[in-house]
Hints:
By secondary structure, this protein is of the alpha/beta class. The chain has helices at residues 2-23, 37-42, 48-56, 75-87, 103-106, 108-117, 120-128, 147-159, 173-185, 189-218, 232-247, 255-258, 278-281, 286-293, 300-310, and strands spanning 26-34, 60-64, 91-95, 135-136, 163-164, 169-170, 223-229, 251-252.
Amino acid sequence: MILKFKLIVICIISLFSASVYAQQKTISITIDDVPNTSKYEKDHFSATLLNVLDSLEIPFTIFINENKITKNSFEDANKELLKKWIENDNSIVGNHTYSHSRYSEVGFDSFVKDIEQGEILTKEYASLYGKNLNYLRFPYNDLGKDSAQHLQIRSFLGSNNYSIAPFTIESSDWMFNYVYEYYLDIKEFEKAKAIGKHYVDKTIELVKFYAVMSETIYSRSINHIYLCHDNSINADYLAEIVDRLQNENYRIISFEESLTDPIYQQEDIYYEKWGISWVYRWMKSSKERYAWMRQEPHLSDIEKIYNDILQK
Length: 312
């Protein structure tokens, strides 16, 4: 009887432990290139992706390019769109520079001006809703061409209350979106639908890869951060990605909660300009980095379609 009781207790503990472990899988959603004013105009001034996020009732973080406000003749409407993104109860607000310049190309002085110009409206609107502007995501995740540029901009950001916004997972949604919008524009709707499905499947495949990689390196699940963009394919398919993630026992958490994971306190020792995952940036040797990169799920199929379209 005592042995039977002990076995029952062990089973209960095992089930509880498994449940806790499942709940430890977390990911946050971060969205670059907000607000997409071209799509806003095309959608008859409906904030399509923002409406989707509202329906999902999940936290998300946006990184803003303020020059998008003047990309068409609807500046007042575009400002209201930006305000809607910022005032949303579930949003955290970040700077993505004014004009999406590439740091390694424009240099320190020009890039600093782009940061400062990109925070004017954002800070004004954020203050209306009791929010701060503490995060910068580099366009192209280009932190500089060498260690000198990296250190120079980090010093500036530290002196101006900015933290660099990292990510661990991205799935080149910008490239999928280019192909997706191309097929929509030429009314090849079935092909567009196939690209949307492929985007969802490839994103989940990449999430699983980075989960295995990080668990191998850190011997546990980590708080992942997914990078995507304010674009058509996410307006139509991000909800499906979130549903798939939740079916994989991922809990969608805020960007700031993700950053409480101690892994984000590690030193970034990658001093090149290429915008790779922070999981790679923390690796101590290029040999380890390249070994993992070679195993990463490829995107050659969508790259081929993308390049074929560009050549038309």
